[in-house]
């Protein structure tokens, strides 16, 4: 589908066999577990032989033919940002391209019906207008305040649906041969081959031109206010954007769930500079997760061969590849990365710890607790004073020294470990260690851990609770008008408790970071829950 997308697209996602992907998705363990209590269909494609008949012979309803034949691509171009007071609204220009392989006469009524239904659910009472520009007929659904719109154009057997007329027109020009396509990008072909994209249910690609925009959009989404976003996002994108040549990602559905693979292509030479101090020995069974409470939302492990040398090398790599302004800003920016974990001097921190770092998020949307091996305790104690002060409240018990600052932030020295985080969260981590009620005692976590090949040189490993995201996705297909969770919460929660945790591992391979994940529904589920209208609860 890249041949349908303009060459200047900043991000691109395709699904080449919608019916097959939908069928595989509904055969996953998570779907089969959650569909009954959520009142969702047991199979998204109940009669696969009818789909085959519709695909090859065109026999069946218009919906069946479109489902059987359609290939889809969603792409993004430059985002538009508007500021209102302390609120920053970012609107990415995007278009969905559907190659229906079906005549306009047959597919137009069905396409327009579903676009109109989506517009009504999203906008309430949209205004519909039609117009002709040159030889192109536009249909547009606008929100009552005219701030949002959906634009539909049909070109031959292709339907193009966008949130702006310019992005839709760029697709029309591609179909008419007046613009270059993303298929001309050489790195796209390399990415497809390395990730075996032909066997994937979904494929996503961010070319070099989209790297800084993608990083900046991520930074905007993490900023607390407009002022932070406006000042920090450009620095982050310029600092890290020069290190990356592009991203590519695939998703595949099977009975166990969704396997995701992502490659972050690094600029030439970076891998060779970072590998000696970054790539560790296999993680094996040496990871100590005893500080992670059994109800924890997520756990992320970082395993570095030489933390101090790696940190110095990372600073050097970034500075050497940044422009003057980015080079000046990169040092304080890198220092601030550990600020949310109570670390005000990253240089001292990486020199004072061992090779393994943990981030324990006890509850969703709460600060994580940082857990690190103690290598230089006096240096870590001085570092703790920068956060909790020189006269903190001190508690001592069972080889644990707990330092509590006036604002409720705390630092603990427990045996050979250093913990930093909000006092309530740190106490729960210490209690897990003392009582033995850690995440390793949870069967779903154990199942997930056993599926990970710990003989590999894993740089980062993340395991988290996938139940809320899984429920939200399957509930989108519920046949009830109101939220099924508001009616059948206990049965849904009981079913969800049997699901595996999501897991991902990151390794440095050749000239790229490779990230592999296992989750219920992967990037497809994330996109649906992000953009689909939410049911009332």
Question: How would the blueprint of this fold be written?
Answer:
Blueprint: E1 11-15, H1 18-25, H2 29-38, H3 48-57, H4 62-69, E2 71-84, E3 87-99, H5 104-123, E4 127-133, E5 136-142, E6 149-155, E7 158-162, H6 165-175, H7 186-194, E8 202-206, H8 208-222, H9 226-241, E9 244-254, E10 257-266, H10 270-278, E11 298-303, H11 307-321, H12 324-336, H13 346-352, E12 353-361, E13 369-374, H14 377-388, E14 393-397, E15 400-404, E16 409-414, E17 417-422, H15 423-435, H16 443-450, E18 460-464, H17 467-475, H18 485-496, E19 502-509, E20 512-519, H19 522-531
Antiparallel strand pairs: 1-2, 1-8, 2-3, 3-7, 4-5, 5-6, 6-7, 8-9, 9-10, 10-20, 11-12, 11-18, 12-13, 13-17, 14-15, 15-16, 16-17, 18-19, 19-20
Helix pairs in contact: 2-17, 2-18, 3-4, 8-9, 9-12, 10-11, 11-12, 11-13, 17-18, 17-19
What would your notes on this structure say?
With 537 residues, the chain is α+β, with helices and mostly antiparallel strands. It folds into 2 domains: 2-6 and 15-196, no CATH class; 268-531, no CATH class. The protein is 40% helix and 28% strand. The protein has a 20-stranded antiparallel sheet, sandwiched between helices. A hairpin with a 2-residue loop joins strand 4 (127-133) and strand 5. Helix 2 packs across helix 17, helix 11 (307-321) runs antiparallel to helix 12 (324-336) and helix 17 crosses helix 18. The protein is globular, with a radius of gyration of 25 Å. The chain starts with 10 loop residues before the first strand and ends in a 6-residue tail after the last helix. The model has no long low-confidence stretch (mean pLDDT 88).
